[in-house]
Amino acid sequence: MDNNTEIVTKRAEYMICASDLHKCSISGTMRLAGPLAYENEFKPIFECIATATDTVELDVTGLTYLNSSGITAIARLIIHARNKDKVLRILSDNTVPWQKRSLVSLVALWEKLTIKPVT
Amino acid sequence: MYTTVSTNAVSIELDYTPFDMVSSWNKANLSSNFCSSFFDTPNEKHSLSELINECIELSIKFGTKRKESCKLQVSKQEECTLILLDMYIFKYPFRMLKGLVQKIKRLKNNHERYTLLYTSEFSEVNFALYNLIVNFKGNLSMRHKKICNDTQTYKLHIAITIPNKELNCGQ
Asked: A98, B28: Cβ pair inside 8 Å?
């Protein structure tokens, strides 16, 4: 992983963690202004996917709110995994309405993607 | 902001300028959470926060006259929740928005859907509208009015009706 890339990003509203080789997590509320803003924040996750040698697990169970730009940004992470031919597992929480409603439709983006509800 | 709460109905009215929201982006998030806090169930609050936030973002991304007030009204009725948005928009983005709504309503297959939602330019706006129309089963209609002394701008009124069942994730 690039030395300049922070593996834990903490902001007042959200936290992104990619300190483990194959595990990343996003939690809190993310309602950034547009996909470019997300691309910057998701940089450690993009790198984690690029360098992974096993299934990458992305835990979004603690992500309470995500706007449409954020869902599009997650779709781009999945497309990145597809381009790098990496297996991706997203851990979700079906009691969070946006996760139940929007994540399932992302499965069709990549055959090696699974969405695993933990609740 | 005006709020009316009675035993059977909740009605919220939010006045804001796009300029204020852009200068401090988190205001959209805070306003959405605050407005939705007057509604009943946790799922309803969550879904409405999501919808209000997307409407505010839509008015910022498509809107013009950044220092003129936009008005967002949310009222819960017996079977459905009505969201009304009043904003100013230039002619070209209006045609784009109208075309996009028609396109979403006519999506034929998964390939068209994924191209529109995840790989096209402004896909986040496409996703926001798709979420409203398809995921929330919302009925979206638009009415525009010409403005005196301004041939390039319309006053746009958007009405969205969402079944209350969908706010509660189909429960």
From this structure: no
